[in-house]
Amino acid sequence: MSGSDLKQRLAAILSADAVGYSRLMAADERSTVAALDASRAIFRGEIEMHQGRVVDMAGDSVLGVFETAAGARYITGQVLHVNGGARM
């Protein structure tokens, strides 16, 4: 492969997971899953609204990719604001 065949691409990666997920699941599985689903919906909507792409949502984690760091940073602030500062 020659140097002219290579394309560079910058990307910002957003990775988030729920704090204390195992403890929360042990204490109240139903409520924890409901809260996790609600947080995932917020993440998905915000990521897609700001030209990002959801790569994966496995377990208690969210992985997204953006073409700019500003997009990833904005989403983090928005999700924390919508969740009332809840730590996911």
Write the layout of secondary structure elements.
Blueprint: E1 12-17, H1 21-27, H2 29-49, E2 53-56, E3 61-66, H3 69-82
Antiparallel strand pairs: 1-3, 2-3
Helix pairs in contact: 1-2, 2-3
* Average pLDDT rating: 85
**Largest β-sheet summary:** 3 strands, antiparallel
Across the major sheet, the strand order is 1-3-2
| Sequence stretches where pLDDT stays below 50 over 5 or more residues | none
In whole angstroms, how far apart are the ends?
A: 42 Å
CATH fold group? Alpha-Beta Plaits
Sum up the overall morphology in one term.
elongated
CATH superfamily: Nucleotide cyclase, GGDEF domain
- Named CATH architecture: 2-Layer Sandwich
Q: What's the gyration radius in Å?
A: 16 Å
Sequence of secondary-structure elements: EHHEEH
Q: Please, how many helices?
A: 3
Count of separate structural domains: 1
Helicity level? 40-55%
**What is the multimeric organization of the chains shown?**
single chain
Structural category is alpha+beta
* Number of DSSP-assigned strands: 3
As a percent range, the share of strand residues is: 15-25%
Q: At the first level of CATH, what is the class?
A: Alpha Beta
In short, what is this structure?
By secondary structure, the protein is α+β, with helices and mostly antiparallel strands.
Could you walk me through the main structural features you see in this protein, from its secondary elements to its overall organization?
The protein is α+β, with helices and mostly antiparallel strands and about 90 residues long. Helix 1 packs across helix 2 and helix 2 packs antiparallel against helix 3 (about 70-80). It has a single domain (about 20-80), classed as Nucleotide cyclase, GGDEF domain (Alpha-Beta Plaits, 2-Layer Sandwich), CATH 3.30.70. Strand 2 (about 55) and strand 3 form a beta hairpin. It has helices spanning about 20-25, 30-50, 70-80; strands at about 10-15, 55, 60-65. A three-stranded antiparallel β-sheet has the order 1-3-2, with helices on one face.
